[in-house]
Amino acid sequence: MTIWVAIILGIIQGLTEFLPVSSSGHLELGKALMDTESLPKESMMMTVVLHAATALSTLVVFRKDAWEIVRGLFVFQWNEESQFTAKIIVSMIPAAIIGITLDDQIESLFAGQILLVGVMLILTGGLLFVADRAKRTEKSVGYKEAIWVGIAQAIAILPGISRSGATISTSVLLGIDREKSARFSFLMVVPLIFGKMAKDILSGDFSAHSESISALGVGFVAAFFTGLLACTWMIRLVKASHLSYFAYYCFVVGLLSIGSQLIL
Asked: Which residue, 232, 175, 230, is CA-closest to 50?
């Protein structure tokens, strides 16, 4: 994988991890366009590295909230911090179950399934379009809402369904305040990303070849800094009710993806 390909994939990941347009779907489209599937092991390693970069950018943007979650694990008091931590843990359960029990089946979906990506992008666009018209409230995330948002995150494992789009839209449709929805959505995925990384590394299914280290490093940097910008931008967009803009984008890219598979 060349340096330029790594930079492009890093920028795609950094933008689409936080913007509600599906990072996994866009990475599949990007890898298909640049023919990186000819290097499957290296491509998978790059995907893991790029997700690590955006997880780190999330921690930087929400460093105070992340610290509260960590403190909530060790204060041994049922205060606001520990309750928020408990809700994050509850939200992780559905995706963790799916990831553990259906890991092989899920991985098979990330093998150039462009038609699937296109259909899921259209579904993402529809969800964003509906959520953008939801009534504004100041409600916080409760345990029931955490479960439903967690289910949305589990479904978003499918390539083409935006994780942030699905979780934020579900929160908003459940009546959660828009800024609180974005905050919860971005924080709830971080433990899952690091858990998935640890699982992949310990499994020994792939390793970085010496000639790819520079590409991995450049991709990481590109995804990290792009992720910082996209994360802060997305919070403003959710508060301003601009999700429908991304819905139109998902419709266009989804239709183009489907058309490319039906025509070629």
From this structure: 230
